[in-house]
Amino acid sequence: MERLQRQATAFRDLLGLETLPQNAREAKAAARQLGAVVLAGVAPPTLLSELIHEEVEGAPLPRPRFVDISTGLRLRYLEWGPSGGVEVVLLLHDLGESADIWRRLGPRLGDRGYRTIALDLRGHGESGRSLDARYSADALAEDVKAFIVARDLYVSPLAVVGCGMGAAAGLALAQAAPFLLGALLAAEFALPADAAAAAAAGEDAAGGGDAAREGALEAANGCASPAAPGGAARACSGSSKELLPWWGFRVGQASAFASVEQCAAFLAHPLANLAPGLLVPLEAAAARQVAADARQVEADAAVAVGSDGASSASSCDSCSDCDSPNSPSSYVRGAAATGGQPGKAQQDGQAGSPAAPAAPPLRELFAQLQRPLRGAVASACSLVRLPAWLAEGRPADYWEEEEEYVSGGGGLQPRMDPSFHFTFDPSALLRGLSGLRCHLLLLRGGRASWADADDAAAMAAAAAGGGAASAAIAELPGAGHWLAADHPEQLLLQVVAFLEGPAVRCFDRRPLPSGAQQGAANGCSSAGASSAGARRPELLGLRPLPEYSTLEEAQKALGPRRIPTAAAVDEELRKLRLEEGRPPSAPSSDDEGEGCGGRTKRRTALARDPPEYFAFVG
């Protein structure tokens, strides 16, 4: 786990954080602090206005829909394709996005006959936010599972396409309900390969005693036991907070933007897109640049005042550990604010100075982190709430309305919980790979990817060695992390090739397997699972089987219910009046009175309206 620890340390240092965020409050503070740094160096190009109009007008969104789910939240979703289609593709967005990010891919899948549904995950878009900041992968998977039940989408196996955070939620869902999904395309999400090997070693060491199991689990979690040779104990954490902190928050989630253009320029900034694999090289390149600058300052000072003055003048310039103006972390933040270009001191010393050879590598690293403007525009239109004139496709002469909107509301606010802090347990997800039953494709970008190639290969091997129908990896050359926004056409080709290739039978309604394995996986008995092979929510592990103490209680709860007639309501009211010791014809409360032809003027809708009106109920 040394690689992850170096990356996490570089992530903390490059962003200028004292500690890695451990909770929602710290994530909000870190996002706000870094957002201010990035906003200071953002200068939106004039091309962005045209790209924004092309994004909104070229791919209009369908009418949004909302549903209340059993986890207590209301989710917003978009839908394309046949409304009654049985081949359902569920799209789950990445961190800091919303269902709008699928505006170009969703209609294309719908045109191919797939019923395509894109969700706003909790804390994003117009969906509800968690009052207690529950934003783990398991919590997101529970929301998706509740949505599937609420919309009756479980009658056939589903295909899930998730990017980044959405891929983590899809993976957690596939492990919690193995027979719910027929296919899972997890884009830009991979778990540490060395942790996967440690988890496998932990399973092999199951018979080796408690010490062997504890050592394997500690290795999988990225920590050492207090008795580990060569040093003191390290803090042990099975969460992504310490091992994979770049998944915790999105830069900009706690910022306010003057315009959509500024938000797009913000999201294209290198510091808003730090890739884990480039963190250590960035820090090393910055350290080399700082050292070269220090040598140049020392040489200039020696010429000006002599060697004694040079020594005192450069006493702190060569410091690479502190957060002084010439430290690597400060240098990276300052260089990123100018797009990776060297500052004035570096420009003055480029010709024939030791600083010149060190600057190009840093610029090359920033170039890898730079996003295409069209993709940044798509992310901005997904993140912020667009002004009415823009969302409605009105002409571009409504700038005065936008200025009033911005000045009156304090700027364009992200449609995201500013305290969002995404977490997951890497070891638990790794151990669950062997329990997958669906087709699995791990997709990664070929440039500045957040998913390491070796990690993806190890995950695919673990899934294939378990019970997955198939497991493979693929790469999009030249693509970065934000695939749905930056490369929708390439992503579409991969999705179609997957669904119509290895996973072509993923939507088939096969009978659920019987036996103890299926019963244990879904929390029900094998006898119930093998009775008819029906895809009921209880058999799929979507909700527990109800339990009743008596037969009468079960019949009362499960039996058909009649819609009360007006005569039945009058009879119940008459009984109530008699119990209260009043005449049967007297009003039973202040809310009742005579009217409407001698009938009560306030009565339930079930009694007022004809029974046919409620034919859709149940």
TrEMBL record:
The chain positions of domain AB hydrolase-1 read 88-178
Q: Which domain of life is it from?
A: Eukaryota
Segments traversing the membrane:
none
Query: Which intervals of the chain are annotated as region Disordered?
Result: 330-358, 576-610
SUPFAM superfamilies referenced in this protein's UniProt entry, alphabetically = alpha/beta-Hydrolases (SSF53474)
Name of the protein this chain belongs to: 3-oxoadipate enol-lactonase
